[in-house]
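Q: How would the structure tokens look for this protein?
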Amino acid sequence: MNPLAGIGRMALGVMTETGRISLFARVALLQGLTPRYYIRQIALQFFRIGYTSLPVVALTAFFTGGALALQIYLGSSRFNAESLVASIVALGITRELGPVLAGLMVSGRVGASIAAELGTMRVTEQIDALVTLSTNPQKYLVGPRLLAAVISLPLLVGIGDTIGIFGGYIVGTRSLGFNEYAYLKNTADFLHTSDVTSGLIKAAVFGFIIALMGCYHGFNSKGGAQGVGRATTNAVVSSAILILAANFLLTSLLFGD
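A: Here is the predicted structure in token form.
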């Protein structure tokens, strides 16, 4: 067996799948951004993606903020720089951990749900039935999910950032002995508007990735229940990888020299 042939087949497979996803995203954007708009579907997806994900994102942010405060305190105490704990927690949450962790949590919860729902509709021919009823499935099923995810993720991350900083504040003032006023002042002094907006921009991109991967894998599901299972797994895995890759690229663009 020639190993180079295997590498070549793998590369061709990756490029083919990338092309298919790009074409799917192009059609989904064109259909989603042009009339007719299904307002009821958009509101329903906004509720499912945004509102129902809030407890998961809030708990993740709170405990991450607390753990981050503990770790930074342990590290900064070696250099007598404990006063930097509040500012580094705020920067770490708003710039990186808030959007990335929220994206990963929502991809596991919502991306899988979208892929399973659309996959089941595909294998039971409900999507074909929409076509026979003169309803564009891209516009009716994919567009509302993309729009709702792009709007919901920045809102979730904004709330998560606040709760994450609050988690660091609770640990800092209750466990590490920081003065409450000094902790809040250090947070406010070092946190800039660009730190928050950069995280929200990342969140919007992550929301698009989650909805796109869920819709793409669900829409192209085949093979019955096993195919739906594969689509769900592929949606979660591809979303997580693309979120981490997009985070690196966006960090380079937003904060690079």
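The mean pLDDT is 91.

The CA atoms of residues 123 and 198 lie 40 Å apart.

Upvote if useful.
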